[in-house]
Design goal:
This protein has about 150 residues and is an alpha+beta fold. The chain has helices spanning about 20-30, 50-60, 65-80, 95-100, 120-130; strands at about 5-10, 15, 35-40, 45-50, 80-85, 90, 105-115, 115-120. A hairpin with a 2-residue loop joins strand 7 (about 105-115) and strand 8 (about 115-120). The chain is globular, with a radius of gyration of 17 Å. About 20% of the residues are buried.
């Protein structure tokens, strides 16, 4: 399970180092084979290959033909398969570099999202996280969260 966030710097070859905790899990569940796709302008989704295949099955079962077609078109625009190298790094396709405007030397946030990973621009993720911070227990009193020890 991928939980937590880590900052990583894009190297001169346009690669990032996957955090050790995430890398270990990625090798356990998919032998280091990952799929990256950009489904929204604010992040890249990185999936273990086996989880991605499960997502594709779900998409193939969509009843809404227009939604299914649009999803597949969007996926096809940026999707690519990668293998994490022996140094724990993964690169980006030229399409992902161009679309997400990845620059050498910039910091990216690698964020766990249970069974897959988000990659955000660091500044964007910090603003997003700050905007979601609980204010005076406003969410902690939510009955849907009553079983959590927060």
């Amino acid at each position: 399970m991928f939980i937590g966030n880590f900052t990583t710097k894009v190297d001169d070859k346009g690669r990032i180092k996957i955090p050790a905790r995430f890398r270990k899990e990625l090798f356990e569940v998919s032998n280091g084979e990952v799929i990256m796709v950009m489904l929204s302008r604010d992040r890249i989704n990185l999936y273990p290959k086996n989880i991605w295949e499960e997502e594709l099955v779900k998409i193939s079962r969509l009843d809404d033909k227009k939604l299914k077609k649009n999803m597949l078109t969007l996926i096809s625009y940026t999707v690519d398969e990668f293998a994490i190298d022996s140094q724990g790094r993964v690169g980006f396709s030229q399409k992902l570099k161009d679309t997400f405007e990845i620059k050498s030397g910039e910091n990216l946030s690698v964020v766990g999202n249970m069974d897959y990973i988000y990659i955000y621009k660091e500044e964007y993720f910090e603003k997003l996280a700050e905007s979601l911070m609980f204010k005076d227990d406003e969410y902690l009193d939510n009955p849907k969260l009553e079983d959590l020890r927060l």
